[in-house]
Every structure is written in C-alpha cells, then in structure tokens.
C-alpha cells in the first residue's frame, strides 16, 4: 500500500542557466543588417510571401528561393501589453511594453516598445521598427514612436 503522505515531487532551489546556439548562417544578412542599423525581411520568390523575422525557407510553399528586402519599418500598433511579471532572463529589467504592429509592408512584428510611457500607448499608434545594438554588443530590434 502506498504512503500518500509522502511528497511526489522535490523542489530544487538551483539556478539553471541555458545557452542556446541558433543556426544563423542562412539568415546572417539579417543580423549583419541590425549591426548596420537596417532591418531586413525575406520575400519568397515562388509565392510572394514576405517573412519577418526572416526565414531561410518559406513556411507557406517550402521554397528556399528567398530575396532580402529592407523594411522601412513604419507601422501601427495592433495590440500591446506592459510586462510586469517577467521571465527569469528579464527579471532585472524594469517593467517594459511589448507590442505587435502591422508594418506598411504588410507583415506583423513583435518587439519591445521604448521611448513612451504606458499611459500614452494606444491601438493605432504610429511606430517605427528600428535596429538596436545593446551596450554589451547584442543586436536586436525595437519599436519607437513615429
């Protein structure tokens, strides 16, 4: 007979650090572009689908024939949220805003929205997707008010 008073799990107080190696050889132009202040998407030459973030193979038709397209980055916020309860990797960050905007080129982008207070953010607000290089040299992108 089982002893039902015994716990079925153990709690660990150890910190787990994970390192990810992401293959970027076929999307390296995207990362190089961010370093140069440019934001790129890929456009499938077979079906015409525009992809952001860029992909090496089209998710719609499977073609590997994609062309690099620099985005103007201008768009409008479709939805947003202020992140107060953060994942462990961002626990030291102050509260931040994440938004989804539809860009003029037709793709949606998900990124942090900076340079604006939460109470001033609105659906339909004009934003620009821009490249960002962090103080420790990592490249990324974010929205700023347009």
List keywords for this structure.
146 residues, globular, 5-stranded mixed beta barrel, 1 helix, mainly beta, 3-stranded antiparallel beta sheet, OB fold (Dihydrolipoamide Acetyltransferase, E2P), 8 strands
What's a quick, concise take on this entry?
With 146 residues, the chain is mainly beta. The protein has one helix and eight strands.
Describe what this molecule looks like in 3D.
Helices cover 5% and strands 35% of the residues. The protein folds into two domains: 48 residues, no CATH class; 75 residues, OB fold (Dihydrolipoamide Acetyltransferase, E2P). With 146 residues, the protein is mainly beta. It is built from one helix and eight strands.
| Individual helix count | 1
Secondary structure class reads mainly beta
Number of domains: 2
Average pLDDT metric: 92
How much strand? Answer: 25-35%
CATH topology of the largest domain: OB fold (Dihydrolipoamide Acetyltransferase, E2P)
Strand line-up across the major sheet: 4-5-6-8-7
Radius of gyration: 20 Å
Helix content: under 10%
Distance between the termini: 68 Å
Please state the overall shape, judged from the principal axes of the Cα atoms. Answer: globular
- Strand tally is 8
